[in-house]
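Follow-up to my post from last week.
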Amino acid sequence: MSETKVVLMYIDGLTNPDFVSTVKERISEINFDLFFDSSQVAAFLEEHQNSIFPQFQQTDRPDVVAYSLGLGKITLLVDNTPFALVAPITFFHLFQSPEDYINRWVVASFLRIIRYICFILSVTLIPFYVALTTHHYQMIPIQTLLILVDSRSKLPFTPFWEAFIMLIFIEIIKEASLRMPTKTGQTLGVIGGIVIGQAAVEAGFASNVLIVIVGISTIASFLIPNYLMTKANSLIQLMFLIFSSFLGLIGIALGSIAILAHLNSLSSIKQPYFSPVSPFFRKDWNDLFIRGPLVKMLERPEHLKPLKLKRYKTRR
Amino acid sequence: MRLHKKRCKRLILLFMTFSLSGCAPFTENNLIEEISPITFLSISKGDKGELKVSTIMPPLSKENKVVMSQEVSLLKEGVQKYNLNFYQEMKSGQMRMLVISDELGKDGIMSIINVLLTDPDISSRIYLVIVKGNFEKYMESQLDKDENFDYSFYRMLKHYEVQNQGELTVVNLHEFKNLLYTPYSDPFLPVFKLEEDGVNYEGTALFKDEKLVKTISSIDDRIFQLINNDHYLAVLPIQEFEVVLGHVRSKIKVDIDSSYSTMTYTVNIDTRIEEYRGEKQLFDPKELENMKKDIETHLEKQTHELLKKMQELKVDPLQLGIQTKRPFSKPMEEKKWSEMYEKMDIKIKYDINIDPLTDANSKRQNL
Amino acid sequence: METHQLFKKNETYNGFYAMLLVNRLQMLYFFLIMPNILINPYMIWVLIAVGILSHLNLLLLSKWLLTRLSSNGYNGFVQLFGKKLVRFLSFIGLFFILLKLSVITLGYSEIIQTFMLPATDTNFLVFFILLFCFYVAGKGVEHTIRFVLISFFCTFWIITFFIFFFFPPIAHLSDLYPLIPMEWKVENWKAFFLILSSYSGPEFLVFLGPWLKTNNKTFRYLSYGNALTVVEYVFLFIASLLYFGSDFLSKSQYPIVNMARYFQNPVIERTDMIMLSFELFNLVFAVSLFLLLFYGASKIAFGKMSKPSSGKGLLFSAFLIFIGMVLVNELFWKSWEKQTFLLNLQIIAGSIGYFLVPLVVVLVMRKRGG
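User reply:
Got it. Predicted complex:
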């Protein structure tokens, strides 16, 4: 149907031919009239349509594409869109940024770990606040409790509704600042963030502790390099929020079990989405939570099953 | 299948939103603005053998605070009675201190300790404190001056506990319980005395099992801190020799002979002189040696007296009995040990290393 | 879209997974209450001795896993025992699984109720746990086995906190004395069987044969997993001895949780709540695996092997288990005396199951093999 040209790129003799055949087959099955973005093509190639996690990495950076090809992935170029699609990716690829390979490895590892921590923070910090203030007051240190009781004593809403309203509000600001011209967008961010937040505290709608927490978790959510993931973040957060107001910490634990089980069962062009953690590839951990020194990464990631594992020339 | 699962999920979500719009029907309501987590309880003897339980309400807030007391026969009953008297529900999950009056201590506090141990909300890190005097009255007088005096009190105990500051005895529930339940050892608690100007640390209360039998104070208490509790003292003034020892660290070695009749208790001390008003030339090795000898004999005498006292009372807060445990033999019975302990000949030996920091008082004969 | 197959087999997992499976299945509920029953310091040796015994058991297990029969799954068993006997045995197996499931789930929910959500009815907790287990199990056996990695990474670090108890002022060497038993009481037998039962769990690997890639290293990996468990048990037991002293140990119902409550952290107090929540990962993993086994076994028992597995069937068995658990909870678990009965039952059932399953399988195999 569609006349849009799609170019499939891979390095012959390196990339696993299974990937190529899978994608070729899927592309040939596409039956749709109009594509104006590569993510729409991706939508037809993905196995798990209902998942909020992207199974194709979208990038407009040639270096990322080149690097991915070199590791043994495949790349799709779609006509008339600036974004290339890279697959197969794993959950952990969402947290890797090209700068990781430019910085010194210790610095890069530190930044990468910060990114993971921020993801966890952005998803669980507000639910954690709700869990502590509604169920587990025992866990709050007494100094903090003094502040919390003081700031919460005159609020009309329960912590859940308070957090829920603030979260929706933040989403509105985020979305609004996207729709506006760049300069107005910035002003809106400032007005929304500071002025309304302050006013909400003074008017007695929200506690200042929550404002701080919402601020931290919102900023933390922007640290994830993948754009699609940043958007998906708030949904996970909302789910955790509901669970936590329901069962406290157990709710959060159950929620994370669900998310992890979901990730565990996902796949990107038939490759497990949660590798190299599950299934386990010990050697690939060098470039997972930390970015190991390049001299230690002489082999391509095993979980990509490349035809040539070694990245160096053997003498014989 | 997919459709089925989706519907299932939706139903669950719907169910959750419904129950959230009210309050969740099956969890305890612990909204922090609706409860008052008490930080301490003070227990003393009421009339007719009842317990008098008092605390400050509301805790942790800047509102007007009042002292509330109830006379009850059971501790938890007191907590329940507060709820009827106050607009916030009382919760014990943030309890930090338990103040016990010394009269109650003399009667035995086993039942109170058991209440604390069984409540899963109460952390085993709460501090136990014995006070002499009427704590309720004291609280009322303090509320006008310092609204957060309970918090300050807690911070003080915490400060001395954390790094073993070596000033006061600080005992938490877990330590007390362990000393109480293990054979051959007896617990001890800090004693505070209430006076016009505030709470003053008096010393350490020694318990025979669950009953308070003796309070040791001043130099005895200092020695107790040194040899048992902290193994560290920030300052140890010895008036007899006009000297103040600072940063005293001790190491204990206990030897017991095979017939369990004599025990050698060696205390190794590392310290430095922080203040000296005497005439001795501290930088002269000979005079320093003399000084050391003097201090050693003095401390030996004091410690011996202290241990004698403990032996007479048959209390063993130093856990000396543990020395009789051997890896490959049956532990002796507690009764047998306590008989032996009474008669045991305990030899004290001090071994002091002094670093003379100052020589300022000497008359500069060398020049 | 591919059809939903719970028991499909695309991948096989190597020894590393077997190791984690063994370890995580052994660290379920009993280790939380174990010190309360062991009490005496010399039980350390019993822990180690039974650990070695369980080692031998794993040797038998690996023998079975190495055969071609094991990788055939159901058909392998049919070849071994004959169709009727397999159906009968899997029918009995259902009760074993149900008992084990009830004990670990109800025990865990009771701990949650005691320490975290005192007003919550345990039936609700069981409902939620099973709901999420159904979700995990619904992903199929493959993904559930893979979930062991996540469960391992989420729970293993907890134990490192207990190193704290090995340092003064808490640790006294004398708390570990006497190191050898002076007398052997009747209660010690209960402790012995408890240890045996806590080591049980790997016998369920017998049924996971199709998904495990086996080679001559399999036994080594299985024994690594077992050794890890022994280390964890001994470590926790010594820590609890140092913390409580053996005289108080019998008075504390949940010693390990009580110990965790003693940790101090300036940012969050009561870290035990966080640890307990993380422990849920392990529980959900194990329960979902057992759920799948239960479903598989019930299919065999009622002769529905030819029918494809479906989510509906799994949901139905999850529902059955839920009903069963609620009944067990109301009839036995909630009253303390009857709970001990159930615990004893599981202790015996676990020990017997762990000993007989690999032994019988290997013996029958030998006989058939000539």
